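Quick one: structure for this chain?
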Amino acid sequence: MLKSCLAAFAVLAWTCDAYSFVSRSSSRSIYTAAPQSTSALSMKLYDWKRRTADETSLNDVDTYVFTLDNLKSAPGSRKRKTRKGRGIAAGQGASCGFGMRGQKSRSGRPTRPGFEGGQTPLYRRLPKFVGKPTGPGHSKKMFSLVTTDHLAKAAPGSTVNYESLEQGKIITKSKYNTYKIVVGKDESAAIASGLTVQAHAFTQTARAAIEAAGGKCELLSRTTGQVLQEAA
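Got it. Here's what it folds into:
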């Protein structure tokens, strides 16, 4: 009886020693810690392999040699895209963050840009100013075109602008109050020599054709119509 009790006590002592409590401080010394980076960056790294990586050499710009095979993107600049509609475990499953019902949960774009549910939108509530339109293409410069074919019919050595061409019945109508000189359909047509052409804009080929014929180009202001650039 005594021998069996001693044997049981010995087995109990051996099992207690095998599964004895080990403090976290003592177990921490058993394993070697991963090298920590000395980078000053405090942003969140989505790449788990680079969170504990030692990138000390990358931060040493003076001695580190960058080549095509060791280039890396900046930490935190590349984030894995969110996979939607792949189950609730992914975080954006089922309705993909658009809710269960309603107009904004339907496929396609539910409303047009600027729509505010029927109330007066912002672009209509703001006051309108002259010369500051808000429609599409409001920054585009619109010109009425005057071709070099019209300049070929002008008198040599004269000052040519839209008013003079209209008085000579070379041009009969215009849609805009600003005019641009462009090359006409007949590029071989000879421009009258010695012309001083006044317009709000010139194309490079039209300017070259006028100057090749001994003429001059004067640029006009779009608002006042005065000469901005005198012909040399």
